[in-house]
Design a protein that fits this description.
CATH architecture of the largest domain: 3-Layer(aba) Sandwich
Number of domains: 3
Helix content: 40-55%
Number of strands: 4
CATH class of the largest domain: Alpha Beta
CATH superfamily of the largest domain: DNA Methylphosphotriester Repair Domain
Structural class: alpha+beta
Order of helices and strands: HEEEHEHHHHHHH
Distance between the termini: 18 Å
Radius of gyration: 17 Å
Oligomer: single chain
CATH topology of the largest domain: DNA Methylphosphotriester Repair Domain
Length: 200
Amino acid sequence: MKLSKEVCVRAMQSKDAKFDGKFYIGVYSTGIYCRPICPAPTPKLKNIQFFPSAAAASDAGLRPCLRCKPEIAPGVDWSGIPALVSKALQLISNSFPDEIKIDDLAGQLNIGSRHLRRIFQQHLGTTPTSIRNTQKLHFAKHLIDETHLSMTEIAFAAGFNSIRSFNNTFKKTYQKSPSKLRKQKDHRQKDPFITLHLGS
C-alpha cells in the first residue's frame, strides 16, 4: 500500500498505531530508522525520509532504532500490494530460516528474476535479498532481547551461515556486537517487571 507523504507525516506526528509496520521513518540526523509509534521525540521533517519497508531503510545505510525496535513491528500489510509481491513475500517467509535463491523464487512465481527485482523495488523500495537479510537480522535481534540462547545458537537459528557473518552483520548495522547489545539490555532490565511483546 503506497502512502502519501502527508499521510505518513500525520501518522508520525500522532504516533498512530494503525500505521505501525506500514512504513518506516529514516532519521538522517541520527542515522536510524523508526516505526511510526516510536516514543522518541518527533524528528524535524527536514531530517527524515519515509520508507515502505525496513529493508529499504537499511539499504539507505540506516540502522534500526533500539527504542521502538523495528524487529517486533507487524509484518508487511500484503492486502495493499499486488498479489505477485504478496505471494513472493509469503514464499520468503515460509522458507525461513533456510535460504531461497532469487532464481528459484522467481521460478516458483513463473516470472523472470529481473522482473521480480523490479516489482519489489517498485512496491517495497528494495530487493528480495534485502527483505530476506533484514528478516534474518530482525529475528536474531529479537532472540537476543527475548531469550538466553547463546550467540552461536541465535546465529544459526536466524539463518546465518557462520558466526563471523552474524557478528559482521550486527556490527555493520548496529555499530555494536551482538554480545554488547545483550549486555546493554541486561543492564537496563534491573527491575522486577516482565515485558511481553504480543503480536497483532
